[in-house]
Design brief:
This protein is of the alpha/beta class. The chain folds into 2 domains: 236 residues, no CATH class; 377 residues, Alkaline Phosphatase, subunit A (3-Layer(aba) Sandwich), CATH 3.40.720. It has 22 helices and 15 strands. The strands form 4 sheets. Strands 5-10-9-4-8-6-7 form a 7-stranded mixed beta sheet, sandwiched between helices. Strands 12-13-14-15 form a 4-stranded antiparallel beta sheet, with helices on one face. Strands 1-2 form a two-stranded parallel ribbon. Helix 2 runs antiparallel to helix 9 and helix 4 packs across helix 10. The longest helix is centred in the first third of the chain and has 32 residues.
Length: 636
C-alpha cells in the first residue's frame, strides 16, 4: 500500500506538498458538505441558485477551521525546518498520518448526508453517546446500510477519488543543496509563516471571538445553516460540551402539559367574547446591564426598604407603568439575552449560545413578529462579536444588528467594553426615528459593567453607594433620562410599548440580595407613554402559537414562576417560596418572604408543597431537556 501511495505525479518541497494537499482536502470538504443539499433539496426550499453558491463559498471558512484542527499534527510534521522531511521512511509515515486523518475528517459529512433528515441539524459530539451506549447502533446499522446504500457507494467513490488525487502529490527526495545557514534561516521563516497562518485559520479569521457553531447564522437563517456548516466542525466544536440528558418523569404527556406547557397561544377577547385583532404597536426592549432589583428605588420603597435608591428617572417612569419584581435565569449576559428575546433560558451547564443546541430551530420575538409586518433590530454598543450576540441575533431572525463597528464616533469609546451609554442611546434614538413601523427593537446597555467607569465630563454628578456599581447605575439612569427626553417628540413614541428589564444582577449589598433568590431578582417594567391601562392580557394580542419557557406576567390565569440552574441544582421561585432540587434526593424549600437568609428548610414540615413544587419542576425540566435534544423548539 505504501509503495502505491508513493507513486506521485507531482513532486515538490514539503511546503508545496502541504499547501496542495490541504487545498485538495478543502475541496473535498466542500463537496461532501454540499452533499446535504444535493441529496435533500426539499429540506431547503428557500435556497435559490445564487444563495447556494454564496453558502458554498461562506462554508469554506468552517471547512478550513475543521481541516486545520484535524491536520495540526500533519502540518507540524511537514513544517519542521529539518532535511529529514525528504527521507523515504519519514515521507511514508507522514502519508499514513495524512490519509488516516483526512478520510476520518470526510466521514461525518458523508454520514450526515443520510442522518440529517432525522435531526435537521448537523451532528454534534453527543452522537458518540448514541453510537457507543446500548445496542441500537448494532441493530440499526444493517438497516441503515440497506436503505442508504447509495450514500455508502457514493462515500466509497469520493474517498477513492480523494486518495487517488492526493497520492499524486508527493515530496521530492532530492533537493537543491544550500549552505546550512541559508537553508535553516529560510526554513525557519517558512515555519513561522505557516504557524501564523495556521493559528489565524484555527480562529476562523481575525475577528474578536473564534468562530463557533453559532457563527454560521451570520451567513444564513437557522434553517439553512446546515448548508454552511460541516459535520466535522460541529462535532469538534461541541466536543467539550456536556449534553442534556433525556428524562421521563412523566409518561403521560397531557399530565405534564397540564403542569407546564411551553407551547402557548393567547387569543385576547373583549367583554363580549370577540377575538381582538392584533395591534400594530412598536415594541422597544431596554435590557440594562447588571440592574439588580436591589438598585431600583421604586422596588425598594415598595418593599419598605429605602436603603438603595439609585434610579430616580426609572422610578418616575415606573410610577406610570406596570412593574414586577422578576428573576433572571442566570448570572451572565450571555445567558440573559436569549432568555429575554427568545424565552430560551440556560438550564444546563453550558450557555445556550455555546451549547450543542444553538443550531436548533427556535422562535423569538423577532421571528414571530416578522410575518406580522415588523422590522427588527438589536443595538449593543459593545464590540461586534462580544459573547456571540451578533450571531445569536441573526439566528433569532433580527433584521439588523448594530454594534460598535456601526457606531461612527470612536471618541465615545469607554476604553473597555464599548460606547458610553449616554451617547450610544442618543445614537439609538436617531436610528429609531428612521425605522419603518411597526418595529421591534432592543438595546442592551453596557456602562454599568465592571470596571464601572464614568465619562470624564460626568464625574462628580452622581452619588456613590456602598457598591462601586451604584455610581454607574446612576449614570445609566441619567443616560435613560436623556434618551426618553430625545424620543418624547418622535412620531413613533406614543405608539410604542417599552419593556425595561435587566440581563442579570450585580453583586449584592442588602442581605436579601446576597441569597440565592435575591441574586436573581431584577425589574420588569411595561410602560406605555400613551397612558393606556395595561390589562391582564398580552399587550399586542398576538394570536398565533409559539414556544416559550416562561409565563405571561399579565395573565392571572397562568401560573407565575421562575427557574434558574446552578451547578447541577435547580431553583424554582413561585409566590413566596423558593424550591431547590437536583431532581434526585436533595431538595429544600424556603419561604424567602419571611426567611430572607434562606436558613429554614421547610421541605420536611411542608411535604405536600415540596412534592408539588418538585412535580412542577420535573415537568419544566422534561419539557426543556427533551425539546432541546429533539430540536423541538417551534410550535407544533
Amino acid at each position: 500500500m505504501l509503495d502505491s501511495i508513493r507513486k506521485y505525479h507531482f513532486k515538490g518541497s514539503p511546503q508545496h506538498v502541504l499547501i496542495y494537499r490541504l487545498l485538495l482536502v478543502l475541496l473535498f470538504m466542500a463537496l461532501t458538505r454540499l452533499l446535504l443539499y444535493f441529496l435533500h433539496p426539499s429540506l431547503f426550499p428557500a435556497v435559490t441558485a445564487p444563495r447556494f453558491f454564496y453558502y458554498a463559498w461562506a462554508g469554506l471558512r468552517f471547512d478550513a477551521v475543521a481541516l486545520l484542527y484535524a491536520n495540526l499534527f500533519y502540518i507540524i510534521l511537514l513544517s519542521v525546518p529539518f532535511r529529514f522531511r525528504r527521507k523515504k521512511n519519514y515521507i511514508a509515515f507522514t502519508d499514513i498520518v495524512f490519509f488516516a486523518v483526512n478520510i476520518l475528517l470526510l466521514l461525518p459529512n458523508l454520514g450526515d448526508a443520510a442522518y440529517f433528515p432525522f435531526t435537521l441539524k448537523r451532528m454534534t459530539f453527543d452522537i458518540f453517546k448514541f453510537v457507543w451506549i446500548g445496542d441500537d447502533t448494532t441493530n440499526l446499522m444493517p438497516q441503515f446500510i440497506h436503505y442508504y446504500w447509495y450514500i455508502f457507494l457514493l462515500a466509497i467513490v469520493l474517498i477513492t477519488a480523494f486518495v487517488v488525487l492526493a497520492r499524486r502529490i508527493g515530496i521530492a527526495t532530492r533537493y537543491v543543496h544550500q549552505k546550512q545557514t541559508n537553508y535553516y534561516l529560510l526554513q525557519l521563516f517558512s515555519t513561522l509563516l505557516f504557524t501564523a497562518f495556521t493559528v489565524l485559520g484555527l480562529r476562523g479569521g481575525i475577528q474578536l471571538k473564534p468562530v463557533d457553531i453559532s457563527s454560521a447564522s451570520q451567513y444564513a437563517p437557522s434553517e439553512e445553516t446546515p448548508v454552511v456548516l460541516n459535520s466535522a466542525f460541529t462535532i469538534m466544536l461541541s466536543s467539550n460540551l456536556q449534553p442534556l440528558q433525556k428524562v421521563s418523569f412523566f409518561k403521560d404527556e397531557k399530565e405534564m402539559a397540564a403542569l407546564f406547557d411551553p407551547q402557548k397561544q393567547y387569543a385576547a377577547q373583549d367583554s363580549l367574547g370577540r377575538i381582538l385583532p392584533m395591534g400594530r404597536k412598536n415594541v422597544f426592549i431596554i435590557i440594562l446591564e447588571s440592574f439588580s432589583a436591589e438598585h431600583i428605588g421604586y422596588l425598594n420603597h415598595r418593599r419598605g426598604d429605602p436603603q438603595c435608591d439609585f434610579t430616580p428617572f426609572l422610578d418616575s417612569l415606573m410610577d406610570r407603568a406596570v412593574v414586577f419584581e422578576g428573576y433572571a435565569n442566570g448570572k451572565r449576559s450571555i445567558e440573559g439575552i436569549p432568555c429575554v428575546l427568545a424565552s430560551l433560558p440556560t438550564w444546563m451547564h453550558e450557555e445556550f449560545i455555546k451549547s450543542l443546541y444553538v443550531s436548533d430551530k427556535f422562535n423569538s420575538l423577532a421571528s414571530i413578529l416578522k410575518p406580522e409586518g415588523y422590522c427588527s433590530s438589536f443595538f449593543h454598543g459593545g464590540k461586534n462579536g462580544t459573547m456571540g450576540f451578533d450571531a445569536f441575533c441573526s439566528s433569532a431572525g433580527f433584521d439588523k444588528y448594530y454594534g460598535m463597528n456601526e457606531y461612527s464616533e470612536p471618541d465615545n469609546y469607554d476604553g473597555n467594553w464599548g460606547i458610553w451609554d449616554e451617547p450610544y442611546l442618543q445614537y439609538v434614538a436617531k436610528k429609531l426615528d428612521k425605522m419603518h413601523q411597526p418595529f421591534l427593537s432592543s438595546v442592551f446597555t453596557l456602562s454599568s459593567h465592571h470596571p464601572y467607569k464614568i465619562p470624564r465630563d460626568r464625574r462628580g454628578l452622581f452619588r456613590k453607594g456602598k457598591l462601586p456599581i451604584q455610581e454607574a447605575i446612576m449614570y445609566t439612569d441619567f443616560a435613560l433620562r436623556a434618551f426618553f427626553a430625545e424620543i418624547a417628540h418622535s412620531s413613533w413614541f406614543l405608539n410604542t410599548i417599552f419593556v425595561i428589564t435587566a440581563d442579570h444582577t450585580s453583586e449584592g449589598q442588602l442581605p436579601f440580595a446576597k441569597n440565592r433568590v435575591g441574586q436573581y431578582s431584577i425589574p420588569i417594567c411595561f410602560y406605555e407613554p400613551a397612558g393606556n391601562t395595561v390589562k391582564p392580557l398580552d399587550m399586542l394580542h398576538y394570536p398565533k402559537p409559539f414556544v416559550a419557557f416562561g409565563n405571561s406576567l399579565l395573565r392571572q390565569s397562568e401560573p407565575h414562576f421562575a427557574v434558574s440552574f446552578l451547578n447541577g441544582n435547580y431553583q424554582l421561585v413561585q409566590d413566596a417560596y423558593a424550591f431547590q432540587s437536583d431532581l434526585g434526593q436533595q431538595r429544600a424549600l424556603y419561604c424567602f418572604k419571611q426567611d430572607s437568609s434562606l436558613s429554614i428548610n421547610l421541605a420536611s414540615s411542608q411535604k405536600d408543597l415540596a412534592a408539588k413544587q418538585q412535580r412542577l419542576l420535573e415537568a419544566i425540566v422534561q419539557q426543556y431537556n427533551n425539546r432541546m435534544i429533539g430540536n423541538n423548539l417551534l410550535p407544533r
